[in-house]
Amino acid sequence: MNQQSIQLGELEHSVLEELWEHGANHAKGVHARLGVQRGITHNTVQSTLERLYRKALLSRTKEGHAYVYRPALDREAFLARLIEQVTHPLADNMPEESLLSAFVDFADEKDEQGLDRLQALIERKRQARSPHGDGG
């Protein structure tokens, strides 16, 4: 997977969300779920799938006469790449604590359980890093 800049239009993002939520699909299936309700053509959906494939955000396999597309990244990996893309240019000129503080503030402002979820995620990450799974 290349590390090119991720820049998505609204339709591209919606197509990715569709595939994350409902799984791999061909252009006709994505069009039936997403394109019909938006009033866009099958060709528009097909072009969007092709752009996402060229951006290395989708993989595809030929099944019969059609390609079946699936996300190349799960949501978490996609978000991690977006965050890295946004923060990397700032990281050299910003104290690490400022960046971490921004995430804590975001978690706190999201809802009342945001900090609890952030703490649980931190604990799971620590346990996963520990050779004995005990966080240390």
Description:
- This protein is mainly alpha-helical and 136 residues long.
- It folds into two domains: 10-71, Winged helix-like DNA-binding domain superfamily/Winged helix DNA-binding domain (Arc Repressor Mutant, subunit A, Orthogonal Bundle), CATH 1.10.10; 75-129, no CATH class.
- Helices cover 63% and strands 10% of the residues.
- Strands 1-3-2 form a three-stranded antiparallel β-sheet.
- Helix 1 crosses helix 3 (42-54) and helix 2 packs across helix 3.
- The relative contact order is 0.10.
- The model has no long low-confidence stretch (mean pLDDT 87).
Features:
136 residues, mainly alpha, Arc Repressor Mutant, subunit A, 2 domains, 3-stranded antiparallel β-sheet, 6 helices, elongated
Topology (SSEs and partners):
Layout: H1 10-22, E1 25-26, H2 27-38, H3 42-54, E2 58-63, E3 66-71, H4 75-91, H5 96-110, H6 114-129
Antiparallel strand pairs: 1-3, 2-3
Helix pairs in contact: 1-3, 2-3, 5-6
Largest sheet: 3 strands, antiparallel
CATH topology of the largest domain: Arc Repressor Mutant, subunit A
What proportion of the residues form beta strands (DSSP E)?
5-15%
From N to C, what is the helix and strand string? Answer: HEHHEEHHH
Shape estimate? elongated
Structural category is mainly alpha
Please bin the fraction of helical residues.
55-70%
Strand order across the largest sheet = 1-3-2
Full CATH superfamily name of the largest domain: Winged helix-like DNA-binding domain superfamily/Winged helix DNA-binding domain
User: So what's the oligomer here?
Assistant: single chain
Roughly how many Å is the radius of gyration?
A: 19 Å
Poorly predicted parts: none
Distance between the termini: 32 Å
**CATH architectural group of the largest domain:** Orthogonal Bundle
CATH class of the largest domain: Mainly Alpha
Number of domains: 2
